[in-house]
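Re: [ENG-882] Designed sequences occasionally contain unexpected residues at chain ends

Forwarding the minimal case from QA. Structure tokens:
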């Protein structure tokens, strides 16, 4: 018997989701093909039975394709689910209505997974005791004048991190490890590092149980978060008190605190697929509401979901209603949560039409680019999908930046010691004009990176030739085998001091090249501490000390941390490294020198056509008045090489950086630099050298 019953009115189709007003709550959900709809209200996230079940009537509670009801005097903090029934001709229609399944609201601002069972949601029948639940949120919040930051792209330095793993290790010494609040406590560290933006691995609510059976049986779970189910809700696992529905407030607290520190927030978003997986996947929301519109279905057997993502399904992003859902979701996170940008996982899947064909002008991607609310928001594409579509350099639109996988591979090969790459390398570190300039795009369209969450860490890149993913439970079949890595002579751990020093030097070389390149640099969190995954290059399921940042390394590898901090500072003091336009090689007016000059060991004699060459040098002219010029040498050969330094009238060269030297001599701040006084310098093997000049 129900303890209480709230009065209801017909409600409104807009806004979608649950909206709290002074007199009650309006609920609205879209379903074109549903024939019966019920709203269920609960006292808590984990109570067994609803206190009220509200059947909706077509004649009263439906407007076009929206079902809606207004519940008078219903308070914030009320939990709810939906149930729907409709056609069941799956093969012919693609419908997956199950009248006993509890569905979460796709527009929910906060959800609970406390009693969630993915296994139960995959089976027919009632899952009332194991379903997720949504909560009515009080959306009021004091932003204290906060607005999204407007840091220009050419000045941006992105730091990709996992909210949970950043503070979950006991050494983090935060009050609330693994949460948004825990990350707030580490903001001083981010400020000292010098980055301008954090790029958060998925923080929209995702299904931690979405892993293969063998992996799940090992006690592992979905850690990275690329299994979104609730696109408007912060992930409850990163909240201190999710059962109180504090998701929105806790995420906003994080954004506001980061903005106060001058750090922007970029969200990694997953609109290419959802947590509902393939044909035998769980019914969570979209599938039970009527997945015909939301997913790509096989033309002849609509039980089968087309999979361009490797995750069982592909979102039908260019369907008008789905496109509107995606764009309104992004606008919500900017307008209501103040985020500064988005990185789109497998973004090329969003370029596919309803038949799977690649569209020249995908409506959803252009809709995102042209949205007035998103006009100042950073848009970053992972410009490929899992079905072979690769669009680096050709992703639709102009504002979109791209994860430049070609940059990554070229730099990795050069660092490994591959020969004859100099012309390719010069193009990459100059902003990849071959990919972007002909389209009228800019160096800032290139997100440059050497490592990211997916693949080896920086330390592992120079410690392993092969992946070692046995701990994932998939017999080492998962993860990429094309790593372009070099173990420096021993696979994995070693006590050989010369190999350990070489690994450190190669890591410093990678940081130096990345931060000396035109475009937007992105670093992986923990790389500056030489964090290791012990050769596992696909840690998507490892929520444990293998992936958690060990903060003891700030002391153990203080020399590398210092190097990265000062390398970031070097980049920031040189506008010539943060150009918005492409380099030309033409003489800069008033400087009597070109913006860039290329060299080998001898000045003005780059080794473009030498198939054995592994040394590249260049001189970069300062842009602003009194800005120092730079002379940079990159030598990945096995031998020392004496190089010439250019003579620039009235100026003297000072050694700023030599990665072969021990800390603190490896990198020096300007006030500690001394004029070199010579015009020949011996560059050691596997070394990057940088000179800055000063007036004589």
């Amino acid at each position: 018997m129900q303890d209480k019953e709230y009065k209801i009115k017909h409600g409104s189709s807009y806004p979608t989701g649950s909206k709290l007003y002074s007199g009650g709550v309006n609920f609205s959900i879209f379903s074109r093909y549903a024939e019966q709809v019920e709203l269920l209200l609960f006292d808590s996230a984990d109570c067994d039975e609803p206190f009220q079940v509200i059947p909706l009537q077509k004649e009263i509670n439906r407007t076009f394709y929206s079902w809606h009801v207004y519940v008078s005097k219903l308070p914030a903090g009320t939990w709810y689910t939906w149930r729907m029934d409709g056609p069941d001709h799956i093969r012919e229609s693609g419908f997956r209505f199950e009248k006993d399944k509890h569905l979460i609201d796709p527009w929910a601002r906060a959800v609970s997974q406390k009693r969630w069972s993915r296994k139960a949601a995959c089976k027919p029948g009632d899952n009332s005791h194991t379903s997720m639940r949504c909560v009515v949120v009080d959306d009021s919040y004091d932003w204290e004048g906060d607005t999204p930051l407007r840091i220009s792209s050419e000045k941006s330095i992105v730091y990709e991190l996992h909210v949970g793993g950043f503070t979950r290790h006991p050494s983090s010494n935060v009050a609330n490890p693994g949460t948004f609040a825990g990350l707030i406590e580490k903001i001083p560290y981010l400020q000292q590092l010098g980055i301008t933006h954090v790029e958060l691995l998925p923080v929209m609510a995702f299904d931690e149980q979405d892993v293969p059976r063998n992996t799940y049986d090992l006690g592992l779970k979905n850690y990275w978060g690329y299994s979104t189910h609730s696109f408007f809700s912060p992930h409850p696992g990163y909240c201190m008190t999710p059962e109180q529905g504090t998701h929105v407030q806790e995420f906003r607290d994080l954004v506001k605190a980061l903005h106060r520190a001058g750090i922007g927030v970029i969200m990694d978003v997953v609109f290419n697929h959802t947590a509902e997986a393939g044909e035998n996947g769980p019914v969570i929301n979209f599938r039970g509401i009527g997945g015909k519109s939301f997913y790509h279905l096989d033309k002849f057997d609509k039980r089968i979901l087309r999979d361009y993502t490797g995750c069982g399904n592909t979102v039908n992003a260019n369907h008008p209603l789905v496109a509107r859902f995606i764009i309104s979701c992004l606008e919500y996170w900017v307008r209501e949560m103040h985020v500064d940008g988005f990185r789109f996982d497998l973004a090329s899947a969003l370029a596919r039409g309803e038949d799977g064909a690649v569209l020249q002008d995908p409506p959803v991607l252009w809709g995102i680019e042209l949205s007035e609310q998103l006009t100042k928001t950073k848009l970053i594409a992972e410009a490929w999908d899992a079905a072979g579509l690769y669009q680096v350099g050709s992703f639709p639109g102009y504002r979109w930046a791209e994860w430049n996988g070609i940059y990554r591979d070229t730099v990795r090969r050069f660092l490994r010691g591959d020969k004859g790459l100099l012309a390719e390398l010069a193009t990459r570190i100059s902003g990849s004009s071959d990919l972007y300039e002909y389209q009228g795009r800019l160096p800032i369209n290139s997100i440059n990176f050497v490592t990211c969450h997916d693949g080896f860490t920086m330390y592992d890149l120079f410690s392993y030739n092969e992946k070692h993913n046995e701990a994932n439970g998939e017999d080492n079949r998962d993860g990429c085998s094309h790593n372009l890595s070099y173990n420096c002579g021993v696979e994995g751990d070693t006590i050989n001091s010369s190999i350990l020093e070489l690994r450190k030097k190669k890591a410093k070389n990678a940081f130096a090249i990345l931060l000396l390149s035109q475009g937007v640099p992105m670093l992986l969190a923990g790389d500056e501490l030489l964090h290791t995954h012990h050769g596992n290059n696909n840690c998507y399921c490892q929520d444990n000390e293998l992936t958690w940042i060990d903060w003891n390394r700030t002391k153990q590898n203080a020399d590398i941390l210092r190097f990265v901090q000062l390398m970031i500072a070097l980049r920031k003091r040189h506008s010539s490294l943060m150009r918005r336009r492409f380099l030309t090689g033409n003489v800069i007016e008033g400087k009597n020198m070109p913006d860039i000059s290329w060299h080998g060991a001898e000045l003005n004699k780059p080794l473009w056509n030498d198939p054995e060459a592994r040394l590249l040098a260049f001189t970069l002219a300062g842009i602003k008045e009194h800005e120092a010029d730079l002379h940079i040498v990159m030598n990945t050969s096995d031998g020392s090489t004496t190089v010439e330094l250019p003579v620039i009238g009235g100026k003297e060269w000072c050694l700023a950086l030599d990665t072969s030297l021990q800390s603190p001599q490896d990198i020096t701040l300007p006030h500690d630099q001394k004029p070199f006084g010579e015009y020949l310098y011996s560059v050691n093997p596997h070394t990057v050298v940088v000179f800055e000049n000063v007036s004589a």
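QA comment: On inspection the terminal residues look reasonable. The longest helix spans residues 497-515. Proposing we downgrade this to a documentation issue.
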